[in-house]
Amino acid sequence: MSMSTPLAAPVAADNRPRSPWRPPADAQACVAGRSVAGGLAEVSRLTRPRIALMVLATVFTAMWLTAGRTIDGPQLGWLLLGTALVAASSSIANQILERDTDRLMPRTAGRPIAAGRMSAAAAALLAGLLLVVGSGVVVAAAGWQPAAAALATWLVYVVVYTPMKRLSPLNTAVGAVAGALPVAIGWLAAEGPRRLAAGDAAGTLAVGALATVLYLWQFPHFMAIAWLYRTQYAQAGLRMLTVDDPTGLRAAGQALAASLAMVPVSLVLAVPSGSVRLFLAAAFASIIYVVATVRFALRRDDVSARGLLLVSLGCLLALLTASVVCGPPASSFAPAASLSTDHSSFIPQTQYLQP
Protein backbone atom coordinates (compact mmCIF):
# COMPACT_ATOMS: atom_id res chain seq x y z
CA MET A 1 0.00 0.00 0.00
CA SER A 2 1.56 3.27 -1.09
CA MET A 3 1.42 6.54 0.75
CA SER A 4 1.28 9.93 -0.95
CA THR A 5 1.34 13.50 0.30
CA PRO A 6 -2.14 14.97 0.29
CA LEU A 7 -2.65 17.85 -2.07
CA ALA A 8 -3.09 21.25 -0.45
CA ALA A 9 -6.48 22.75 -0.76
CA PRO A 10 -6.63 25.50 -3.36
CA VAL A 11 -6.40 29.01 -1.96
CA ALA A 12 -8.82 31.56 -3.26
CA ALA A 13 -7.20 34.46 -5.08
CA ASP A 14 -6.94 37.62 -2.98
CA ASN A 15 -8.00 40.45 -5.27
CA ARG A 16 -8.19 43.13 -2.62
CA PRO A 17 -6.42 46.38 -3.65
CA ARG A 18 -3.06 46.83 -2.03
CA SER A 19 -1.23 50.08 -1.40
CA PRO A 20 2.31 50.27 -2.82
CA TRP A 21 5.07 49.16 -0.49
CA ARG A 22 6.85 51.95 1.32
CA PRO A 23 9.98 51.70 3.42
CA PRO A 24 9.66 52.38 7.13
CA ALA A 25 9.64 56.00 8.23
CA ASP A 26 13.16 55.80 9.63
CA ALA A 27 14.42 54.35 6.33
CA GLN A 28 12.70 57.15 4.40
CA ALA A 29 14.36 59.72 6.65
CA CYS A 30 17.72 58.05 6.09
CA VAL A 31 17.29 58.13 2.30
CA ALA A 32 16.14 61.75 2.43
CA GLY A 33 19.13 62.63 4.58
CA ARG A 34 21.49 61.00 2.13
CA SER A 35 19.80 62.87 -0.74
CA VAL A 36 20.21 66.21 1.03
CA ALA A 37 23.80 65.42 1.94
CA GLY A 38 24.52 64.36 -1.63
CA GLY A 39 22.96 67.54 -2.98
CA LEU A 40 25.02 69.69 -0.66
CA ALA A 41 28.16 67.80 -1.63
CA GLU A 42 27.35 68.41 -5.29
CA VAL A 43 26.87 72.14 -4.69
CA SER A 44 30.16 72.20 -2.78
CA ARG A 45 32.03 70.53 -5.66
CA LEU A 46 30.50 72.97 -8.11
CA THR A 47 31.01 76.24 -6.21
CA ARG A 48 34.12 75.38 -4.10
CA PRO A 49 33.07 77.31 -0.98
CA ARG A 50 36.55 77.22 0.58
CA ILE A 51 37.85 79.45 -2.19
CA ALA A 52 34.82 81.72 -1.84
CA LEU A 53 35.40 81.92 1.92
CA MET A 54 38.98 83.11 1.35
CA VAL A 55 37.69 85.76 -1.06
CA LEU A 56 35.13 86.98 1.48
CA ALA A 57 37.74 87.12 4.24
CA THR A 58 39.93 89.21 1.94
CA VAL A 59 37.10 91.62 1.12
CA PHE A 60 36.20 92.05 4.79
CA THR A 61 39.81 92.59 5.85
CA ALA A 62 40.31 95.22 3.14
CA MET A 63 37.16 97.05 4.27
CA TRP A 64 38.26 96.86 7.89
CA LEU A 65 41.73 98.21 7.14
CA THR A 66 40.15 101.05 5.15
CA ALA A 67 37.15 102.07 7.25
CA GLY A 68 37.54 100.31 10.59
CA ARG A 69 34.59 100.63 12.93
CA THR A 70 32.69 102.89 10.56
CA ILE A 71 31.72 99.86 8.47
CA ASP A 72 27.96 99.61 8.07
CA GLY A 73 26.80 96.13 9.09
CA PRO A 74 23.94 95.55 6.61
CA GLN A 75 25.99 97.01 3.77
CA LEU A 76 28.81 94.60 4.59
CA GLY A 77 26.42 91.64 4.68
CA TRP A 78 24.92 92.40 1.28
CA LEU A 79 28.36 93.09 -0.20
CA LEU A 80 29.68 89.73 0.99
CA LEU A 81 26.59 87.94 -0.32
CA GLY A 82 26.99 89.50 -3.77
CA THR A 83 30.70 88.75 -3.81
CA ALA A 84 30.04 85.12 -2.84
CA LEU A 85 27.62 84.73 -5.75
CA VAL A 86 30.17 86.17 -8.19
CA ALA A 87 32.85 83.85 -6.78
CA ALA A 88 30.53 80.85 -7.17
CA SER A 89 29.88 81.87 -10.77
CA SER A 90 33.60 82.03 -11.52
CA SER A 91 34.09 78.54 -10.09
CA ILE A 92 31.33 77.11 -12.27
CA ALA A 93 32.64 78.90 -15.38
CA ASN A 94 36.11 77.55 -14.64
CA GLN A 95 34.77 73.99 -14.49
CA ILE A 96 32.89 74.46 -17.76
CA LEU A 97 36.07 75.47 -19.56
CA GLU A 98 38.16 72.77 -17.89
CA ARG A 99 35.68 69.89 -18.09
CA ASP A 100 37.81 67.96 -20.60
CA THR A 101 41.04 68.27 -18.62
CA ASP A 102 39.19 67.69 -15.33
CA ARG A 103 38.17 64.24 -16.61
CA LEU A 104 41.83 63.30 -16.99
CA MET A 105 42.82 64.02 -13.38
CA PRO A 106 41.63 61.89 -10.44
CA ARG A 107 41.50 64.95 -8.15
CA THR A 108 38.93 66.67 -10.42
CA ALA A 109 37.25 63.83 -12.32
CA GLY A 110 34.41 63.72 -9.80
CA ARG A 111 33.31 67.30 -10.38
CA PRO A 112 29.68 67.52 -11.56
CA ILE A 113 30.34 68.85 -15.06
CA ALA A 114 33.39 66.67 -15.75
CA ALA A 115 31.54 63.58 -14.53
CA GLY A 116 28.51 64.36 -16.70
CA ARG A 117 26.08 64.87 -13.81
CA MET A 118 25.45 68.42 -15.06
CA SER A 119 25.46 69.56 -18.65
CA ALA A 120 27.69 72.41 -19.75
CA ALA A 121 24.63 74.34 -20.97
CA ALA A 122 22.87 74.10 -17.61
CA ALA A 123 26.07 75.06 -15.82
CA ALA A 124 26.56 78.06 -18.13
CA LEU A 125 23.02 79.23 -17.41
CA LEU A 126 23.61 78.92 -13.67
CA ALA A 127 26.99 80.70 -13.87
CA GLY A 128 25.48 83.57 -15.84
CA LEU A 129 22.57 83.90 -13.43
CA LEU A 130 24.84 83.97 -10.39
CA LEU A 131 27.11 86.54 -12.04
CA VAL A 132 24.24 88.88 -12.90
CA VAL A 133 22.51 88.55 -9.53
CA GLY A 134 25.76 88.79 -7.58
CA SER A 135 26.92 91.88 -9.48
CA GLY A 136 23.52 93.48 -8.96
CA VAL A 137 23.66 92.87 -5.21
CA VAL A 138 27.16 94.39 -5.03
CA VAL A 139 25.98 97.46 -6.99
CA ALA A 140 22.96 97.90 -4.71
CA ALA A 141 25.05 97.47 -1.57
CA ALA A 142 28.15 99.50 -2.40
CA GLY A 143 27.98 101.01 -5.89
CA TRP A 144 29.30 100.29 -9.34
CA GLN A 145 33.01 100.56 -8.48
CA PRO A 146 33.16 97.50 -6.17
CA ALA A 147 30.97 95.66 -8.69
CA ALA A 148 33.45 96.54 -11.44
CA ALA A 149 36.28 95.15 -9.28
CA ALA A 150 34.30 91.94 -8.72
CA LEU A 151 33.66 91.62 -12.46
CA ALA A 152 37.35 92.27 -13.20
CA THR A 153 38.28 89.47 -10.80
CA TRP A 154 35.84 87.15 -12.58
CA LEU A 155 37.23 88.05 -16.01
CA VAL A 156 40.89 87.61 -15.02
CA TYR A 157 40.18 84.24 -13.41
CA VAL A 158 37.86 82.81 -16.06
CA VAL A 159 38.84 84.49 -19.33
CA VAL A 160 42.61 84.87 -18.83
CA TYR A 161 43.91 82.49 -16.15
CA THR A 162 41.85 79.39 -16.95
CA PRO A 163 42.76 79.11 -20.67
CA MET A 164 46.34 80.14 -19.92
CA LYS A 165 46.90 76.99 -17.87
CA ARG A 166 47.14 75.09 -21.15
CA LEU A 167 49.51 77.60 -22.75
CA SER A 168 52.21 78.79 -20.35
CA PRO A 169 53.64 78.28 -16.85
CA LEU A 170 53.10 82.02 -16.39
CA ASN A 171 49.50 81.14 -15.54
CA THR A 172 50.42 81.21 -11.84
CA ALA A 173 51.43 84.87 -12.04
CA VAL A 174 48.10 85.70 -13.72
CA GLY A 175 46.13 83.61 -11.25
CA ALA A 176 47.82 85.46 -8.40
CA VAL A 177 46.39 88.71 -9.78
CA ALA A 178 42.90 87.24 -9.60
CA GLY A 179 43.60 86.18 -6.02
CA ALA A 180 44.67 89.67 -4.97
CA LEU A 181 41.96 91.65 -6.80
CA PRO A 182 39.21 91.08 -4.18
CA VAL A 183 41.14 93.52 -1.99
CA ALA A 184 39.96 96.24 -4.39
CA ILE A 185 36.33 95.25 -3.78
CA GLY A 186 36.63 95.95 -0.06
CA TRP A 187 38.71 99.11 -0.52
CA LEU A 188 36.26 100.61 -3.01
CA ALA A 189 33.24 99.61 -0.93
CA ALA A 190 34.74 101.43 2.07
CA GLU A 191 35.15 104.64 0.04
CA GLY A 192 38.91 104.19 -0.25
CA PRO A 193 39.33 106.71 -3.11
CA ARG A 194 37.40 109.41 -1.23
CA ARG A 195 39.39 108.81 1.90
CA LEU A 196 42.66 109.00 -0.01
CA ALA A 197 41.56 112.22 -1.76
CA ALA A 198 40.69 113.68 1.65
CA GLY A 199 44.25 113.08 2.83
CA ASP A 200 43.64 109.84 4.71
CA ALA A 201 46.29 107.55 3.19
CA ALA A 202 46.61 105.12 6.11
CA GLY A 203 43.92 102.75 4.94
CA THR A 204 45.16 102.78 1.36
CA LEU A 205 48.70 101.95 2.49
CA ALA A 206 47.46 99.04 4.59
CA VAL A 207 45.24 97.72 1.80
CA GLY A 208 48.06 98.08 -0.74
CA ALA A 209 50.30 96.01 1.53
CA LEU A 210 47.53 93.43 1.94
CA ALA A 211 47.08 93.12 -1.83
CA THR A 212 50.83 92.66 -2.33
CA VAL A 213 50.99 90.07 0.43
CA LEU A 214 48.14 88.13 -1.17
CA TYR A 215 49.83 88.24 -4.57
CA LEU A 216 53.16 86.97 -3.24
CA TRP A 217 51.56 84.43 -0.90
CA GLN A 218 50.05 82.52 -3.81
CA PHE A 219 53.36 81.50 -5.41
CA PRO A 220 54.58 79.11 -2.66
CA HIS A 221 51.00 77.95 -2.11
CA PHE A 222 50.38 77.02 -5.74
CA MET A 223 53.87 75.66 -6.33
CA ALA A 224 53.24 73.18 -3.53
CA ILE A 225 49.98 72.13 -5.18
CA ALA A 226 51.66 71.96 -8.60
CA TRP A 227 54.35 69.67 -7.20
CA LEU A 228 51.92 67.34 -5.45
CA TYR A 229 49.80 66.89 -8.58
CA ARG A 230 52.51 67.30 -11.22
CA THR A 231 51.82 63.88 -12.75
CA GLN A 232 48.11 64.58 -13.09
CA TYR A 233 48.74 68.02 -14.54
CA ALA A 234 51.09 66.48 -17.10
CA GLN A 235 48.51 63.85 -18.08
CA ALA A 236 45.91 66.60 -18.58
CA GLY A 237 48.28 68.73 -20.65
CA LEU A 238 48.33 71.67 -18.25
CA ARG A 239 51.47 73.81 -18.35
CA MET A 240 52.33 74.10 -14.68
CA LEU A 241 55.93 74.98 -13.84
CA THR A 242 56.48 71.56 -12.28
CA VAL A 243 55.44 69.97 -15.59
CA ASP A 244 57.82 72.05 -17.70
CA ASP A 245 60.60 71.49 -15.16
CA PRO A 246 60.11 68.11 -13.43
CA THR A 247 63.12 68.72 -11.17
CA GLY A 248 61.14 71.37 -9.31
CA LEU A 249 64.07 73.80 -9.25
CA ARG A 250 62.22 76.60 -11.04
CA ALA A 251 59.11 76.12 -8.95
CA ALA A 252 61.19 76.16 -5.76
CA GLY A 253 63.00 79.30 -6.92
CA GLN A 254 59.77 81.18 -7.58
CA ALA A 255 58.28 80.06 -4.28
CA LEU A 256 61.37 81.06 -2.32
CA ALA A 257 61.67 84.48 -4.00
CA ALA A 258 58.01 85.25 -3.29
CA SER A 259 58.15 84.14 0.34
CA LEU A 260 61.26 86.22 1.01
CA ALA A 261 59.65 89.29 -0.57
CA MET A 262 56.58 88.70 1.60
CA VAL A 263 58.49 89.34 4.83
CA PRO A 264 59.05 93.11 4.48
CA VAL A 265 55.71 93.63 2.72
CA SER A 266 53.79 91.92 5.52
CA LEU A 267 55.51 94.20 8.04
CA VAL A 268 54.12 97.22 6.16
CA LEU A 269 50.68 96.01 7.21
CA ALA A 270 51.49 97.18 10.74
CA VAL A 271 52.80 100.64 9.79
CA PRO A 272 49.48 102.53 9.40
CA SER A 273 48.07 101.22 12.69
CA GLY A 274 51.34 101.37 14.61
CA SER A 275 50.38 98.08 16.25
CA VAL A 276 53.31 96.21 17.77
CA ARG A 277 51.17 93.06 18.03
CA LEU A 278 50.38 93.19 14.33
CA PHE A 279 54.06 93.76 13.54
CA LEU A 280 55.10 90.72 15.58
CA ALA A 281 52.33 88.53 14.18
CA ALA A 282 53.21 89.49 10.60
CA ALA A 283 56.90 88.88 11.21
CA PHE A 284 56.31 85.50 12.83
CA ALA A 285 53.86 84.26 10.17
CA SER A 286 55.95 85.38 7.20
CA ILE A 287 59.21 83.97 8.61
CA ILE A 288 57.56 80.60 9.27
CA TYR A 289 56.38 80.70 5.65
CA VAL A 290 59.96 81.30 4.49
CA VAL A 291 61.21 78.36 6.58
CA ALA A 292 58.62 76.02 5.06
CA THR A 293 59.48 77.26 1.57
CA VAL A 294 63.21 76.75 2.13
CA ARG A 295 62.50 73.20 3.29
CA PHE A 296 60.51 72.55 0.12
CA ALA A 297 63.22 74.14 -2.07
CA LEU A 298 65.90 71.92 -0.54
CA ARG A 299 63.98 68.65 -0.50
CA ARG A 300 61.44 68.95 -3.32
CA ASP A 301 59.39 65.96 -2.23
CA ASP A 302 55.75 65.34 -1.42
CA VAL A 303 56.24 65.58 2.34
CA SER A 304 57.81 69.04 2.19
CA ALA A 305 55.20 70.15 -0.38
CA ARG A 306 52.33 69.09 1.89
CA GLY A 307 54.01 70.84 4.79
CA LEU A 308 54.34 74.03 2.74
CA LEU A 309 50.69 73.82 1.69
CA LEU A 310 49.52 73.57 5.30
CA VAL A 311 51.84 76.35 6.46
CA SER A 312 50.61 78.59 3.64
CA LEU A 313 47.02 78.30 4.83
CA GLY A 314 47.99 78.92 8.44
CA CYS A 315 50.13 81.91 7.47
CA LEU A 316 47.30 83.55 5.53
CA LEU A 317 44.80 82.93 8.32
CA ALA A 318 47.21 84.43 10.85
CA LEU A 319 47.85 87.54 8.76
CA LEU A 320 44.17 88.22 8.07
CA THR A 321 43.17 87.58 11.68
CA ALA A 322 45.94 89.78 13.08
CA SER A 323 45.02 92.57 10.67
CA VAL A 324 41.46 92.58 11.99
CA VAL A 325 42.07 91.85 15.69
CA CYS A 326 44.96 94.27 16.14
CA GLY A 327 42.89 97.13 14.86
CA PRO A 328 42.56 99.20 11.70
CA PRO A 329 44.74 102.23 10.93
CA ALA A 330 43.97 105.38 12.90
CA SER A 331 41.80 107.52 10.63
CA SER A 332 40.54 111.07 10.81
CA PHE A 333 38.26 110.66 7.80
CA ALA A 334 34.59 111.31 8.54
CA PRO A 335 32.42 109.36 6.09
CA ALA A 336 29.56 111.22 4.53
CA ALA A 337 26.07 110.42 5.73
CA SER A 338 25.27 109.00 2.33
CA LEU A 339 28.16 106.56 2.42
CA SER A 340 26.00 103.56 3.12
CA THR A 341 22.76 104.83 1.62
CA ASP A 342 23.60 106.06 -1.88
CA HIS A 343 23.55 102.59 -3.42
CA SER A 344 21.43 100.54 -1.03
CA SER A 345 17.91 101.92 -0.82
CA PHE A 346 16.53 98.45 -0.07
CA ILE A 347 18.97 97.83 2.80
CA PRO A 348 17.70 98.75 6.30
CA GLN A 349 19.62 101.70 7.65
CA THR A 350 21.44 101.26 10.95
CA GLN A 351 24.02 103.10 12.95
CA TYR A 352 27.66 102.38 12.31
CA LEU A 353 29.13 99.51 14.28
CA GLN A 354 30.56 100.58 17.59
CA PRO A 355 33.62 99.08 19.28
Provide structural commentary.
It is a single chain. This protein folds into two domains: 47-199, Tetracycline Repressor, domain 2 (Orthogonal Bundle), CATH 1.10.357.140; 201-328, Four Helix Bundle (Hemerythrin (Met), subunit A), CATH 1.20.120. The protein is built from 15 helices and no strands. The chain has helices spanning 25-47, 49-67, 73-97, 99-102, 120-142, 144-164, 171-180, 182-189, 192-197, 202-228, 230-236, 241-244, 249-268, 276-299, 302-325. The protein is globular and about 55 Å long.
Q: Alpha-carbon distance between the termini? A: 106 Å
The CATH homologous superfamily of the largest domain is called: UbiA prenyltransferase
Assigned CATH architecture of the largest domain: Orthogonal Bundle
Number of helices: 15
Beta-strand content bin: under 5%
CATH topology of the largest domain: Tetracycline Repressor, domain 2
- How many beta strands in the DSSP annotation? 0
What share of residues is helical? 55-70%
Query: CATH first level of the largest domain: which class?
Result: Mainly Alpha
Shape: globular
Q: Structural class given helices, strands, pairing?
A: mainly alpha
Order of helices and strands: HHHHHHHHHHHHHHH
Instruction: Kindly give the count of domains.
Output: 2
Q: Biggest sheet: strands, sense, closure?
A: none
Mean pLDDT: 85
Unreliable stretches covering 5 or more consecutive residues: 1-8, 336-355
Rg (C-alpha, Å): 27 Å
